[in-house]
Amino acid sequence: MRDLYKRLGLDPRAGEVEITGAIERCEHTALRADARTVLEVGSRREEYDALHVTLSDIGRLRARLGLTHAPYWRDGPADDFSLPPDTHGSRHDELMQRLTRAALLHNRWQRLRGPWLAAALFALGIMLGMGLCRWLP
User: Can you tell me where the transmembrane regions are (predicted)?
Assistant: First the structure.
């Protein structure tokens, strides 16, 4: 599916006057016909805008996952909603790192909890015993 806004050089929030002007300036007859059919009719434009948002979200998701089209699909209508791969890492990677860190801290606490808890209870017992010895004659 073509990204009509991208192909016409428009912002998706463009007004009717801007859209009409861009359609008139377009030299590609098939693109001009598609744009007139879709963008100049209010109900069709609303449907297209909803679909445009969905396809843009899918394009961002594909970029986050590092997915791109094969070379023979590039620069064609199938590639209109594609973005370059996101090299900064995805939110998934960040969350996995945080979960791994939390699991390591939990495991460390579990490993140390037993000896420290026993030592703390032993020390508390000694202190209570010493306190009781002072109160008793």
Answer: 116-136
Give the whole-angstrom CA distance, residue 61 versus residue 55. Answer: 10
Round to whole Å and give the CA distance between 44 and 36.
10
0.70 surpassed by pTM: no
What's the total number of domains in the chain? 2
Q: Which long-range contacts (CB under 8 A, 24 or more apart) does 50-53 make?
A: 51/1, 52/3, 52/5, 52/12
CA-CA-CA-CA torsion sign (86, 6, 27, 46): positive
**pLDDT digit string (tens) for 2-31?**
789 988 999 988 999 999 999 999 998 998
Q: Is residue 130 part of a domain?
A: yes
**pLDDT tens-digit series, residues 48-89:** 999 999 988 888 888 777 777 666 556 666 567 777 766 666
Range of the domain at 60: 4-79
122 and 63 in one domain? no
Note whether 104 and 123 are same-domain residues: yes
